[in-house]
């Protein structure tokens, strides 16, 4: 259980890092970044998306 939780929080951490990277680039890329992360989650590329 804790191992699963650890991987989940790591995924969330990575997502927020990605989103902040997109936000720094440009506000419109932040929107794109969120769409990209949601699509990635839908296609099973990443486990979960922090929204």
Protein architecture, described:
The structure is a single chain. With 51 residues, the chain is mainly alpha-helical. It has one domain (2-42). The chain contains 2 helices and no strands. It is flat and about 30 Å long. The two termini are 23 Å apart.
Q: How many whole angstroms does the radius of gyration measure?
A: 12 Å
Low-pLDDT windows of residues: none
Distance between the termini: 23 Å
Rough outline:
flat
Tally of contiguous helical segments: 2
Q: Main beta sheet, described?
A: none
Number of domains: 1
How big a fraction of the residues is strand?
A: under 5%
Series of H and E elements = HH
What's the count of strands?
A: 0
Specify the helix fraction band: over 70%
Q: Mean pLDDT, nearest integer?
A: 66
Structural class: mainly alpha
């Amino acid at each position: 259980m804790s191992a699963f939780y650890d991987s989940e929080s790591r995924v969330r951490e990575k997502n927020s890092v990605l989103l902040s990277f997109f936000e720094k680039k440009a506000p419109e890329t932040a929107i794109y970044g969120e769409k990209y992360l949601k699509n990635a989650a839908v296609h099973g590329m990443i486990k979960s998306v922090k929204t």
